[in-house]
Write a structure and sequence with these properties.
By secondary structure, the protein is an alpha/beta fold. Helix content is about 45%, strand content about 10%. It has an eight-stranded parallel β-barrel with strand order 5-6-7-8-10-12-13-14. Strands 1-2 form a two-stranded parallel sheet. A two-stranded antiparallel ribbon has the order 3-4. About 40% of the residues are buried. Its cofactor is Mg(2+).
């Protein structure tokens, strides 16, 4: 373990209940509390985003960073990476969480050559492997940053230059190797620049074929190395590209099916990406669940007045409750967990602010899970939903679902029925039930 304490004066975060006034305590997240047959710990598998929590410094396009972290002071890349790892594992232990997630360049600076980066990544991977052994903290998923470096300005697997595509392949091989070495449970692809700025200079069909082939090669390589986890794709409609090929969950599912990847890949859904696609978080979850691809969740939110990815910590209890209804109905996640892909605000500069943000996020999901379970088990919610579709439970409606009718049959039924009485959707009643149980 590291000798230096980075988060001085902050003890392990405990559950104290909703009546507690202690800002450094969980009010709703009780890891061992059983809800719907599982502990909260097992339901959520909360993970810390290495990039935001330990790499972000509060910079924006108009100013340099405001958050000066002690683990950023070493000038030597390897020492800086070790310091960051020490701080990360201290923080995760104090939060009482079990997982972390990373991009390759989060762990250590890239270096000036590909060979240099390979050596650096291998060295820090071994160091983090020791940290994992000492603490019991696990890796939810790893990924590669194939979007920040200028070489990827025209994409990675969809780049029109084959040499850039090959470089991305080499980088992802190393990231997969690191994930496997660290016993990562999953691996994520986020196509930050897999898309286009203008169709005028873009062969979309060829780029999509290249991306499908690239992901197939990555899957085959990882499986050959013994990786048994899920591969996730994280949809986002735009930003940094004008249009990204993994626009939303439905688009991504269609892509995976076209290229025969649906058995190995599932969807990692981010709240802020869902809203940027003009969807709700729960819509994206429902779409993935219906396709048996609800893999993992990145927990954050956007700003309702801003049209870009602000990556704020989740605090909308109504939105999260509706999402947890989908979560419970789907039987939870397939392989993944809930990663706090969120960053404290630029004007939040105290070390305790990082704790406060994660506490609030965990409490929001825990409170929403408890509420959703009560709605399902104690209210008329399920009965009301089923009643809307009762005409399909018997008679001709049941025959339709069983494939026993043809279009002429529907025509004859319409003739027999004549004009129909309107059936209310009772939307306001459903909304009132959510508010009542919150």
């Amino acid at each position: 373990m590291a000798s230096q304490e980075y988060f001085k004066g902050i003890d392990n975060i405990k559950y104290e209940g909703h009546l507690s006034d202690n800002p450094l305590a969980f009010k709703y997240y009780n890891p061992e509390q059983v809800v719907a047959g599982k502990t909260m710990r097992a339901h959520f598998k909360f993970a810390i985003a290495y990039w935001h929590t330990f790499c972000g410094q509060g910079s924006d396009p108009f100013g340099s960073g405001t958050q000066n972290f002690a683990w950023d002071r070493a000038s030597a890349p390897l020492q800086a990476a070790k310091d960051k790892a020490d701080a990360a594992f201290e923080f995760i232990l104090k939060m009482g969480f079990d997982y972390f997630c990373f991009h390759d360049f989060d762990l250590i600076q890239e270096g000036t050559t590909f060979s240099e980066f390979e050596k650096r990544l291998a060295t820090i991977t071994e160091y983090i492997k020791q940290k994992k052994a000492e603490t019991g903290i696990k890796l939810l998923w790893g990924t590669a940053n194939c979007f920040s470096n200028p070489r990827y300005m025209n994409g990675a697997s969809t780049n029109p230059d084959f040499n850039v595509l090959a470089r991305a392949g080499g980088q992802i091989k190393l990231a997969l190797d690191a994930t496997i070495t660290l016993d990562g449970e999953n691996y994520v692809f986020w196509g930050g620049r897999e898309g286009y700025m203008s169709l005028l200079n873009t062969d979309m069909g060829r780029e999509l074929d290249h991306m499908g082939q690239f992901l197939t090669m990555a899957r085959d390589y990882a499986r050959a190395q013994g990786f048994k986890g899920n591969f996730f794709i994280e949809p986002k409609p735009m930003e940094p590209m004008k249009h990204q090929y993994d626009f939303d969950t439905a688009t991504t599912i269609g892509f995976l099916r076209k290229y025969g990847l649906e058995k190995d890949f599932k969807i990692n859904i981010e709240v802020n990406h869902a809203t940027l696609a003009q969807h709700t978080f729960q819509h994206e979850m429902e779409t993935a669940a219906n396709a048996d691809m609800l893999g993992s969740l990145d927990a954050n939110r956007g700003d309702y007045q801003n049209g870009w990815d602000t990556d704020q910590f989740p605090n909308n209890i109504q939105e999260t409750t509706e999402a947890m209804l989908v979560f419970l109905k789907a039987g939870g996640l397939q392989g993944g967990g809930i990663n706090f892909d969120a960053k404290i605000r630029r004007n939040s500069t105290d070390m305790e602010d990082v704790f406060l943000a994660h506490i609030g996020g965990a409490d929001t999901f825990a409170r929403a899970l408890i509420t959703a379970d009560k709605i399902i088990t104690s209210s008329a919610y399920d009965k009301l939903r089923k009643a809307r579709y009762s005409s399909f439970d018997s008679g001709k409606g049941q025959d339709f679902e069983a494939g026993k009718l043809d279009l002429k049959d529907l025509y004859n039924i319409a003739q027999e029925n004549g004009e129909l009485k309107l059936q209310s959707g009772k939307q306001e009643l459903f909304e009132n039930i959510i508010n009542q149980y919150i």
